[in-house]
Amino acid sequence: MVIRDARFICSNTQVALCPEPSLPEYAFIGRSNVGKSSLINMLTGRSGLAKTSSLPGKTQLINHFLINEEWYLVDLPGYGYARVSKDSRANWAKMIRAYLSKRENLSCVFVLIDSRLPPQNVDLEFLIMLGEMGVPFVMVFTKSDKQSGSRTAQNVQTFLAKMSETWDELPRHFVTSAVGRNGRDEVLAFIDEVNQQLRETEGNA
Q1: Which residues on neighbouring strands pair with residue 30, listed in sequence order?
Q2: Which of 45, 69, 132, 147 sits 20 to 30 Å CA-CA off 167?
Q3: For the purposes of burial, counting CB atoms within 10 Å of the CB of 8, is it exposed (0-12), middle (13-18) or buried (19 or more)?
Q4: Close Cβ partners of 28 (under 8 Å, ≥ 6 residues apart)
Q5: How distant, in Å, are the alpha carbons of 62, 79, 98, 99, 158 from that of 68?
Q6: Distance of alpha carbon 117 from alpha carbon 134, whole angstroms
């Protein structure tokens, strides 16, 4: 997939105010400080599209970006630790759950996981929630450039093994680096693949 155009459309706290659900939508979410904004900028090839920060909790709204006039990339607030009030975190959680359960054109959620860390309960619990809600998702392991390839592979396999304790079938996963642009082609090809499947389904309807 070639990204010809990527532009910000709107930010919201309410699902009802999101753009008309006429195009496929791919949401990106992860634990605070997982490198989400950097990954989004790397995927789109637009260095300032998503706002990056060294402080967790930068994204506080549902942010929609229109890609190639064909699909939406959605930047969701992070879950887990952030230097905000307990009430703010509760509001984020409510907003995220409403989006995930009500957004009818949501085609897939990309759950970002820090490849440098052992399995974190907050990640595992969020994945279980998605499974219980029946929301399709894949996993994206970030920051693979911060350590050796062998360590990244080991940590990914440890995470997958932990998931296997409670999941009969594991979702697809990607290993990425915003710095080295690793995984970019694979993630975009996956989105292209899902978009094609959706077009074929609509054509047969």
Answers
A1: 112
A2: 147
A3: middle
A4: 36, 39, 40, 73, 74, 75, 76, 109, 110, 112, 140
A5: 20, 29, 27, 23, 37
A6: 27
Q: Which two tokens stand for residue 69?
A: 């006039």
List per-residue pLDDT tens for the chain, 205 residues long.
899 999 999 999 889 999 999 999 999 999 888 999 999 999 999 988 887 544 444 457 899 999 999 999 999 988 875 565 676 667 778 889 999 999 999 999 999 999 999 999 999 999 999 999 999 999 999 999 999 999 999 999 999 999 999 999 999 999 999 999 999 999 999 999 999 999 998 877 6
Residue with the two structure tokens 């490849």? 115
